[in-house]
Design brief:
Bound molecules: adenosine monophosphate
Largest sheet: 13 strands, mixed
Helix content: 25-40%
CATH architecture of the largest domain: 3-Layer(aba) Sandwich
CATH class of the largest domain: Alpha Beta
Strand order of the largest sheet: 2-1-9-8-10-11-12-13-14-19-18-16-15
Number of domains: 2
Number of strands: 24
CATH superfamily of the largest domain: ANL, N-terminal domain
CATH topology of the largest domain: Rossmann fold
Number of helices: 15
Structural class: alpha/beta
Radius of gyration: 23 Å
Oligomer: single chain
Length: about 475
């Protein structure tokens, strides 16, 4: 039997194909029937243009319904989908083009659909579970961006596990304001909705007014932490506005405990935080029923084996399971380096698992600071700083230091007195962990998924201790 992911999804589309799939802001709707027709027509055009099984089909465009159709059509046609951030410059796109050698690079999926044959492709190209479905280039902040190879089986396993874990049913309506060039919006959110044959409130991006209006129709919202801080900054976001939504899910970057607490105070609801990455989709999640613990990303999903490497309580998180990718595109050596002999993938995230099995993340391994020979986990310092009145958010980094190798510095959103904040940190932390300098800023640099870009901070303040 074919393991084509599109067939799995389409088998669960509503029997009544006139049911809506996309609810657009202007009041228009796109039905499941129209989705299926568009997918079939684009798939027919892909084949007509000579796309063969395993060929890469790249998309670089703003978020659209036709972009989703193109993704699903690539699956249906047996091609490998390659989504690219619309914000990439031509030089960046050139790197991906040279590396992935896509048969087609589509920048206007609506025009591509308009030029497709009238007759949809009837039958999907059969695929084995191990055949590639997509290549997702990691947002890698250093070195060359790596293409994570995800198979039909990887994506199907994760989608089915999440659908169950988060209690999805055909009655759900998902608020979708995420980009679709990234795992979060393209796989995690989209697949859950499609597996239920659910409608999605389909927003091109996060905009306060549209999200607030969309909440009235939604039962599930998925977002990055900045979505939630932006909602909280808007006084119109109230308990009543949040009430139709049964679960707010957060991921792609750490959710501050203060955001969790403020959200609960405002709405009475506890955000469900989960943890994932391009190489494995979702790895761990707080439970739908039972305790959602702020600061923890919850339990490994069913089927995911998770362990901490290095023999200490805190170390690099290693994972194995059906959703874990098979390797980096055309980088066998890099792939070999990042898997253990028994096929666990080294996530590069540092964390620990408590006796109950909950996972706690303390940051990226490459953000670990070694100051005077001692390891400093930035998260531990950030948690202390974030508790100090006047501090909204902090990012702790290591900077070149003449005596210590690296010196601990904190970049802080908020106001305050540098000496007082250092003293507050010292009161709770060993001296080597406390920041030696604090830099106050209005905002922290973030990527499209809301992740703080510590590499940019390290560059910006590189001379702080040696200047
Ligand atoms: P990406 O491959 O762009 O999705 O980035 C994956 C990385 O985002 C992970 O390796 C983590 O470092 C980080 N991440 C994702 N979700 C969380 C979370 N809930 N808490 C902390 N870090 C997270």
């Amino acid at each position: 039997m074919s393991a084509n992911l599109y067939d799995l999804l389409a088998a669960r589309f509503p029997a009544d194909r006139s049911r809506p799939c996309f609810l657009l802001s202007d009041g228009a709707e796109v039905s499941y029937g129209a989705l299926e027709n568009g997918v079939g027509r684009i798939a027919a055009r892909l084949l007509a243009e000579g796309v063969e099984p395993g060929d890469r089909v790249a998309l670089q465009a703003e978020k659209s319904v036709e972009g989703v159709m193109l993704y699903l059509a690539a699956l249906k046609a047996g091609a490998v989908f390659l989504p690219l951030n619309a914000a990439y410059t031509p030089a960046e796109v050139e790197y991906f083009r040279a590396d992935a050698e896509p048969r087609l690079l589509i920048t206007d999926p609506a025009a591509f659909l308009a030029g497709a044959p009238a007759e949809p492709l009837a039958k999907s190209t059969p695929r084995a579970a191990s055949d590639l479905a997509a290549i997702i280039y990691t947002s890698g902040t250093t070195g060359r961006s790596k293409g994570a190879m995800l198979s039909h089986g990887n994506l199907a396993a994760n989608a089915l596990a999440l659908y169950d874990a988060w209690g999805f049913s055909p009655d759900d309506v998902l608020l979708h304001a995420l980009p679709i060039f990234h795992v979060h919006g393209l796989f995690v959110a989209l697949h859950c909705a499609l597996l239920g044959g659910c409608p999605m409130v389909w927003l091109p991006k996060f905009a306060d007014a549209e999200v607030l209006a969309g909440l009235a129709r939604a039962t599930v919202m998925m977002g990055v932490p900045t979505f939630y801080t932006r909602l909280l900054a808007n006084p119109e976001f109230t308990r009543e506005r949040a009430a139709p939504v049964r679960v707010f899910i957060s991921g792609s970057a750490p959710l501050l405990e203060s955001t969790f607490a403020e959200f609960e105070a405002r709405t009475g609801q506890r955000i469900l935080e989960r943890y994932g990455m391009s190489e494995a989709a979702i790895i761990a999640s707080n439970p739908l029923d039972g305790g959602r613990v702020p600061g923890s990303v919850g339990f490994p999903l069913p089927g995911v084996e998770l362990r901490i490497g290095g023999g200490e309580e805190t170390g690099v998180i290693e994972i194995r399971g059906p959703s874990v990718f098979s390797g980096y595109w055309r980088m066998p050596e890099k792939t070999a380096e990042e898997f253990t002999a028994d096929r666990f993938f080294l996530t590069g995230d540092v964390g620990r698992q408590d006796p109950d099995g909950r996972v706690w993340i303390s940051g990226r391994a490459k953000d670990l600071i070694i100051s005077g020979g001692y390891n400093v986990y930035p998260k531990e310092v950030e948690l202390v700083l974030d508790e100090v009145p006047g501090v909204v958010e902090s990012a702790v980094i290591g900077l070149p230091h003449p005596d210590f190798g690296e010196g601990v510095a904190a970049v802080v959103i908020g106001q305050g007195d540098e000496a007082a904040l250092i003293a507050a940190a010292r009161a709770q932390l060993a001296a080597y962990k406390a920041p030696k300098r604090i830099l106050f800023v209005d905002d922290l640099p973030r990527n499209a998924m809301g992740k703080v870009q510590k590499n940019l901070l390290r560059q910006r303040y590189a001379e702080l201790f040696i200047g």
